[in-house]
TrEMBL record:
<keyword id="KW-1133">Transmembrane helix</keyword>
<feature type="transmembrane region" description="Helical">
    <location>
        <begin position="63"/>
        <end position="83"/>
    </location>
</feature>
<keyword id="KW-0812">Transmembrane</keyword>
<keyword id="KW-0472">Membrane</keyword>
<protein>
    <recommendedName>
        <fullName>MFS transporter</fullName>
    </recommendedName>
</protein>
<feature type="transmembrane region" description="Helical">
    <location>
        <begin position="95"/>
        <end position="128"/>
    </location>
</feature>
<dbReference type="InterPro" id="IPR036259">
    <property type="entry name" value="MFS_trans_sf"/>
</dbReference>
<feature type="transmembrane region" description="Helical">
    <location>
        <begin position="21"/>
        <end position="43"/>
    </location>
</feature>
Length: 133
């Protein structure tokens, strides 16, 4: 294969290589990334505010809730092994379900029970698994 001496030929060859990737597949991927970014914001960014203002958690309970999230996020370490065994689609869907359950559980507003801690834990496991797939 002769090397292109003209820079325009190099650019054309580089762009020609992009045709191997279907443009139609990029749109759902882009949409998914936008929606996941918005969804994770509910707890990852505003979790402390939700716990403090909506559920009247003390500083100690907020710290414990984030500790639960962090410990259960260790499940995300298994994302690679799970992907190898079950496939990326299954693990990705599982992580989305876990995140959705966590967000929905926290949205119930039940602060007197263990539910907010479970919600934070389920979300943590789902979010870190999702980011590892």
């Amino acid at each position: 294969m002769a090397l292109a001496r003209n820079p325009q030929q190099k650019v054309r060859r580089s762009l020609a290589g992009l045709s191997r990737y279907p443009a139609a597949g990029v749109v759902p991927l882009f949409g998914s990334a936008i929606l996941m970014g918005a969804a994770r914001t509910a707890i990852w960014t505003f979790g402390v505010d939700i716990l403090r203002e909506e559920l009247q958690f003390s500083h100690q309970r907020i710290g414990l809730a984030w500790l639960v999230l962090g410990v259960t996020a260790l499940v995300g370490v298994a994302a690679g092994a799970g992907t190898d065994r079950f496939g990326i689609a299954v693990i990705h869907r599982l992580s989305l379900v876990l995140m959705g359950l966590g967000i929905a559980s926290l949205a119930t507003g039940l602060s007197a029970s263990v539910l907010p801690f479970v919600a934070m834990g389920v979300f943590g496991a789902g979010y870190i698994t999702w980011s590892g797939t």
